[in-house]
Design brief:
Layout lengths: L3 H13 L4 E17 L2 E19 L2 E7 L4 H11 L15 E3 L17 H16 L5 E19 L3 E20 L2 E11 L11 H16 L2 E2 L3 E7 L6 H6 L6 H4 L21 E4 L20 E6 L2 E2 L6 H7 L7 E2 L8 E2 L3 E4 L6 H6 L3 E14 L4 E13 L2 E7 L1 E6 H7 E4 L4 E9 L2 E9 L2 E9 L3
Parallel strand pairs: 4-6, 8-18, 9-16, 15-22
Antiparallel strand pairs: 1-2, 1-5, 2-3, 5-6, 6-7, 9-23, 10-11, 10-15, 11-12, 13-14, 16-17, 17-18, 17-19, 19-23, 20-23, 21-22
Length: about 450
Amino acid sequence: MLDVTTARNALDHALSLGADFADLFVERQQRQTLSTLLDQVDNVLSGLEFGIGVRLVYGDKVLYGYTNQASPDVLRAIIDRLAAKDRRDPRNVASAFDFRVGTDRHPVRVPLSLDAALQQKIDFVRRADAAARNGNAQIVRTMGMVLQREQQVEIFNSEGLHTTDTRHYCRMALTAVAADGGQQATGREDIGGLLGWELHLSDEPERIGEEAARQARVNLGAKPCPSGRMPVVIGNGFGGVIFHEACGHLLETTSVARKASVFHDQMGEMIAHASVSAVDDGTIDNAWGSINIDDEGMATQHTQLITEGRLTSFLVDRIGSQQTGFARTGSGRRESYRYAPASRMRNTFIQAGKDSFEDMIASMDRGIYAARMGGGSVQPGTGEFNFAVTEGYYVEGGKVRYPVKAATLISTGPAVLREISMVGPDLALACGMCGSVSGSIPTTVGQPALKVNDILVGGNA
């Protein structure tokens, strides 16, 4: 995408101004989004974008700029402006480029650039809508969405790295709304992966529609949730959003290097119950948060964050490694060329255990089964969180009694890690989008069902 000579000259110029390190992130991205209301197309958006990000490093100081033009003069001008206050005599000599073609772990059959498949996507969502409303008089509305994008990246740096990658993302979701008189409730089901439109072969639209409708009907008939401190069983899949938000961000060197994380000085220590092991794995075939290389050009990897309760690794990008001394983990990520990379999660989840779901429920005299989790808020640094339960049930006498609504889980990441006592074998992953200092990126959350011995439950009973 970028002429090699142009890249070479830009990096040479950066080093001539005394930069310790410089790199270029070149990106071309194609995107298509389809939205529906009931069985009608509501909107179709598509676009193509190109840009180049320029990063200069002077010691621990990072300078960043970007442009939509591949002109040598424009790149040189950006570098001049970035280095204006920090320029000094040259300290390094740029290395010759060593072009590397990495292993593509995520094969794609129907990329967006080959076939937009718009009518197939419309038909798929319409089948999901029909299944959601079939025989369900309470389902009054559905909203469907299909997102597909193709991101080509090329990376050059002053140490001689030159590499490329192409990433294909596809995701589909259906939200169902149930109504009874003046009461309304929603349910949602979605699928996604580092895939092309062959995603539709991985699941049936009827199952997606029926599941969204089931959740909406359950929530419509739910009773107010009791509140107070009690045990909670959190369901698999998207239940892992709590670990991601309240704990995962505290393990990124973006926080660790600034000592803004409570875990910054706890490497090797027990930070969780011994039943808890957790990883951040960028290598899972075609998973939503997977990558071949990170946005600094390093091959992705499997990173063991917690082993039987003990902290064993942080998530480390180039600058984080420089600041903390920990080895890079292939975790430098960004939303687009508009952002400098930072340490970010990929596919982050608590690993499977051996405790049965039935034993978890049977162990609770009075508690909540949070079958599905939604969004919430997290306080950076401490991991204090407040997350909504989108499908929950009251448990009494070791049995699931009835569905509840308006439940929230309130605690801190460090506290909840220590309160986990049972972990099931039913690991599942779910798609999400994660926002941080380098923008919004695709990440996977996940966990098996697990029991938290004591947590504050907010409710309105």
